[in-house]
Amino acid sequence: MSNQQPTIIYTLTDEAPLLATSAFLPIIRTFVAPAGVNIQTSDISVAGRILGEFGEFLTDEQKVPDNLAHLGELTQDADTNIIKLPNISASVHQLISAIKELQSKGYKLPDYPEEPKNDEEKAIRARYSKCLGSAVNPVLREGNSDRRAPLAVKNYAKKHPHSMGEWSMASRTHVAHMKHGDFYHGEKSITNDRAREVRMELVTKRGETIVLKPKVKLQEGEIVDSMFMSKNALVQFYEDQMEDARKTGVMLSLHVKATMMKVSHPIVFGHAVKVFYKDAFAKHAKLFEELGVNVNNGLVDLYSKIEALPESQRDEVIRDMHACHEHRPALAMVDSAKGISNLHAPNDVIVDASMPAMIRAGGKMWGADGRPQDTKCLIPESTFARIYQEIINFCKTNGAFDPKTMGTVPNVGLMAQKAEEYGSHDKTFEIPEDGTARIVDNASGEVIEALTQEVEKGDIWRMCLVKDAPIRDWVKLAVTRVKNSGMPAVFWLDPYRPHENELIKKVETYLKDYDLTGLEIHIMSQVRAMRYTLERVIRGMDTISATGNILRDYLTDLFPIMELGTSAKMLSIVPLMAGGGLYETGAGGSAPKHVQQLVQENHLRWDSLGEFLALAVSLEELGIKNDNARAKLVAKALDAATGKLLDNNKSPSPKTGQLDNRGSQFYLATYWAQELAQQTEDRELAELFAPLAKTLTENEQKIVDELAAVQGQEADIGGYYKPDEKKLEAVMRPSKTLNAALAETQSRAK
Length: 750
Known about the structure:
The chain is of the alpha/beta class. It has 27 helices and 24 strands.
């Protein structure tokens, strides 16, 4: 039992989750304070992280702490309890937009140097790079992942099935991936035999040694990968597939993970843009270089850079870009009405979200004419691309999944301590010239020959690591979930992939530590595992997927979108290896279009169900650890309220004028108060919440009307990346009746 006051650290993030949290926090504080639980907020938004990094440029009033670093330290404390909401995995374009917004608010931050000209600018860019991509998750995820659909949510989806597009055996949709030259085919892996410090270096054909990473500490038993993707093979792959799509008349789409894989995948994305528009890039190569065009950031970077050109020159470039389409296939669109294509920005189409959405829609994406079309899905890296082809094949044969009857696929994911590719950002490099990429022991000078790669200029080389302790913990978590659920589990591991072959050896060894009598646990390659799981899913049978870090991300979007219509309704628990807990409020990103709708129409369609689920588990854990009966009781009441919310269909509607996030939160507060007022375990608590339950119940229509009255008009929140707190509160808490009822309860609880 801890001697500290039970505390939940509630993260403040970005976009729709931040908006919803600003309305939900007063409700949370009203209900948990009587249980002696403290709510402490921590701003880890993109804006907050930028300000925390560049404090020397700010006034004393503007300075903020480095909250992310502090939370990273707290993950090593057994008493830590963090609720983590989705945050922006910033692209360069988003980062620059955030910087400009902050500068406009009086924060004298340095500009982001896209083309650093000196050491000072290089240093500034390196510091800004800490805020790029998924900078948050690797710091906080000091445990492995347990993600599943709560029973109440699954039952709701069965009773109220979401729409699913029809599949036809005549569908032309398919996945195209590289057959050679990608990371899968260029991977080498070892299990490190002793603790050591190594460096990553390139020995060029000219004989020069370039140190790319001077120090990497390796632990005994750690799996170490050296892998590369060939630029020439990638470019040829794009050319071949684009020409095939043109000849066959199928629409082209590109699916990468440029947010999380913030070094390698923007490069992969940029090559797709340059190949598609190769004639225009050949003609204007010198001009684009002078302008600093970097299409690793998408076409948006090119079009923004040419704005500075004289009109005639700008129009010439645009004509030449458009002319390329005559010899290329049609592109999938992000926004058909605005002409924004799949190649506009790398963060617009993220593979783990875009592929499930396409599969749910019957294998179709939007074309330039605003109509859904079959598509050739380019996923260059073959390692995991094949799972999507397998599910496409399955849907062509068996038709769309039926949410009313399909089974569920929980996930146990290996992600602790920056496991695998998602922890490789600082060890990923675009090779500057032909040579030998090697990993060298700093103490002895020994070259680890088993990891040496022959590379060419433009290739992408990276080192990936996974420590032994997280693997042991992963196996333990998987076995525990099988015992507790009665479901079989499948470790999705490919013996033909060097890294996963090393993992298989460890999994087989650590499984021997447990009595597996009566338990069903398999190890299968990804394609076999997918087929096995799908055969069970359509029969209404449940199967745990135990996967590495990337597949954890992919599958916990894929299956929830089929089962529940969204991945935001998943329960995501990360038991921290030091003993604390991280509770993530669903997957699915931070929904920028939801913010757009709020600003334009004052309607927030974001569903906070993930927050409700995470908070209940967080409170329950606090109650157990601190022997706090009230915290457990409040958690139990919240679970019951969430079930009632689903049963009564009080989730947010996407349509303006109907119930939105704020209305859904009101109903949760009403049901939560009712549950606490009706329970008989704690009379004092019941007496405290009975007046609130009565007020909210009797004033239901009045509060709903107050919340609805503001819809249909523009809303000013005072900023996108850093909203004004007072304006945000005014927008997100428009019901005076609800606000007064909560305040009155808080006053009586003191």
